[in-house]
Amino acid sequence: MKFAVSYSTTMFGVDPDHLAAFAQHAEACGFEGIYVPERVALTTGDTFGGTELPVTLPYGAPLDLLTYVAAATERILLGTGVLLLPYYHPVMLAKRLATIDVLSKGRMRLLTVGIGALPSEAVAAGVDFSTRGRRADEAIDVLRLLWSDEADGASYSGEFFEFKNVHSFPKPLSRLPIHVGGSSRAAARRAGLRGDGYFAGGALMGDERAAQWDLAQTMAGDRTLDYTRWGSIELTPASLEAYAAQGVTRLVVGTSSPDPSEQRDQLSAFADRFALSPSTPSTPSTPSPPS
Description:
The chain has 291 residues and is an alpha/beta fold. The chain has one domain (2-274): Luciferase-like domain (TIM Barrel). Helices cover 39% and strands 18% of the residues. The protein has ten helices and 13 strands. The chain has helices at residues 9-12, 16-29, 62-72, 90-103, 119-125, 132-146, 185-194, 206-220, 237-245, 260-273, and strands spanning 2-6, 33-36, 47-48, 51-52, 77-80, 83-84, 112-114, 154-157, 162-166, 179-182, 197-200, 226-232, 250-254. It is globular, with a radius of gyration of 18 Å. The model is unreliable at 280-286 (pLDDT under 50). InterPro entries: Diverse_substr_monoxygenases (IPR051260), Lucif-like_OxRdtase_Rv2161c (IPR019921), Luciferase-like_dom (IPR011251), Luciferase-like_sf (IPR036661). Its EC number is 1.-.-.-. Residues 14-217 form the Luciferase-like domain. One of its GO terms (molecular function) is monooxygenase activity.
């Protein structure tokens, strides 16, 4: 099992010193990676999980946050949970992600993309909410094309994106994995067909969660997928066994205290409980590409 941490600027703010210190301590504890969330924009009345979202929540731009983390750390992998893919043009995004991977010496390895759940956010971004799934599918294909080594460049003709003989440099230092996040069967299907892993979210019943993971694996065929889930900072060894029995390969935990000192204590206690090793650098694997 791999363990990563989540840093949400909606809870902890965007203070650069706090972000750097949190990431450095997580790295020293031996956590594999750090994830940051995304909201592009909020509108009065937006709700998530039945709760209205305050419009003043300080959602930092995830790729900028991770670039800052990369400069302040040495080993910890960089992740998004999730990057709202339909609201980015993939040609521009390909270059940004590859640049972060190069500057971080190959640590942009936990990229997780989703399609978003707020119609008002799509309107603000100028995207038809009903098409966001198809846009995401095309964007994943475009990213992979632009990161390939085709001598004549990449060409693509789809419903939303079209270009011919385009070259995009720099390239990622090695094949850059794309994980898919979500809590629906559509997300699970997308993960199996196009992704390198499934980051399952949502408050789902056990049967539905298992069905989604089975669907992702079925769509993946003979490829092996990472299976990431949210976990508790108070996780026990017995609970860990239950996750492992479900096929989970990575757990992402978040601290429950707004106090930096208590956050460090919680991360340290978790690392001690599961004997994380800070002396072992995180070496990203190179998954087989989706067919």
